[in-house]
Amino acid sequence: MKQLRLLHLRNTKLTGCIPLEIGNMTELLTMDLSQNYLQGQIPDTVSRLVKLRILELSKNQLGGHIIPELGNSSIISYINIARNSFSGAFPPSICMGGALTVVNAEYNRFTSLDDLTFQNCTTLEHVEFTENNIVADLRGAIPSWISKSLPRLRFLLLSSNMFDGIIPPQILQFRQLQLLDLSKNKLTGPIPNDFANFTGMTQEQVGNMTYRFLQAEKLQIVWKNGGYVYTSTIAFMAGIDLSCNLLSQEIPKGLTTLLGVRYLNLSRNHLSGGIPRDIGNLALLESLDLSQNQLSGEIPPSIADLKDLGTLNLSSNGLSGRIPTGSQLQTFLDPSIYSNNHGLCGSPLQDCVNPSASKQNETDQDEDRETLLLYCFVAAGVIFGFWLYWSMLLFCNKPWICEFYQQIDNIQDKIAISKSSDQFVVLTKPWF
Predict the structure, then answer these.
(1) Long-range CB contacts for residues 283-286, cutoff 8 Å, separation at least 24
(2) For 48-92, what is each residue's pLDDT tens digit?
(3) Domain residues of the chain, as ranges?
């Protein structure tokens, strides 16, 4: 079948190896052998398929090295070899044709991306090397050249590799980047703050591009901490995942300028300081996970402005104060999203009790009791003096009465001072 252009054998339980004769189909445009049980390597004869545009080999048991000749096709635009056992270095010749748009090599055993790997991939828009063993260079750092070599990149997924060191500032030069996933590595240092060039995340994506060769235009992200699955049409996706690293210092305020972001995961790091006050600027945000860090202070009231928020996790930090209320926040009834923040209170946690207000109430009650006691002493003194005066006028002609009042007069000459708290009551003798 030398004139065959489309070969679709997805999920047909094929076994064995890809035959060498596959190279005779020189008119082939699309070859889909995914979701089978194919073994062995990609045969060298695939290099004869100079008109091949789409190569789909995902979810098989293929292995070995990627043949350098794979990139000989001048129009190949899509390569998906995910979930196999390919190893070694990814060949620099993969972009020789100059038309490659998508490379998905997740869940393999690739070990390196050298400076030449994507040197000619100026058309590349989607790079996915999740769950490999990639060490970019001897230091293991993410290559700083990556933004210069891939100016049109929109999706960069390098999760679950062996990258360490800091996030290079050059990675913020991607002007069209919509999704950045560097989770589950060993990255250290602060998160860069200057996101001015991330124009792909500063505004809402309107879906001006479609991958017509994808089987499903959906991109699925599994949240590492809670098992959440976040699915969105790939053309509309915009987000950042830096979870499960060793990042430190404060969450940069520059993140709040990325108004098109729908997904933000900074969990399981060593981030400190407070949640940015302008977090509410991210009006399109649907998923937010800042759990298992060392964040402190109050939850900013602006978080209540996130009307589209569907997933939230702020647990295991040092947050305090009252949980903000809002129409969307009221839908989060699971207290575990705020757990292990001993200073937080309010719905769905326990009601807030203001310690300072409680102490003030006790102080006011003590002062009221002291004032009442003072008034009682004064009233008793006035009544006693009144009756003593009139009794003297009525009965003073009797000697024993006069003698009695004389004794009373002598006692009152000694000033009686009664102390109650910080106030003194002075009892003076009545005037006769």
Answers:
(1) 283/259, 283/307, 283/308, 284/204, 284/238, 284/259, 284/260, 284/308, 285/261, 285/309, 286/230, 286/262, 286/310, 286/311
(2) 898 999 999 999 999 998 887 776 666 888 999 999 999 887 777
(3) 6-247, 373-427
Q: Which positions ≥6 away from 195 have C-beta within 8 Å?
A: 172, 201, 202, 252, 254, 255, 257, 258
Pull the structure tokens for residue 311: 């997933």
Exposure string for 62-88, b = 16+ CB within 10 A, e = fewer? beeebbebbbbbeebbbbbbbbbebee
Alpha helix (H) ranges present in 70-150?
A: 146-149
Q: Identity (one letter) of the amino acid at 242?
A: L
Inform me whether the pLDDT recorded for 160 exceeds 60: yes
CATH class as words, domain 6-247: alpha beta
pLDDT in tens, 273-291: 999 999 999 999 999 999 9
Q: Is 374 exposed, middle or buried (0-12, 13-18, 19+ CB in 10 A)?
A: middle
> Residue 406: in which H helix or E strand, if any?
helix 399-413
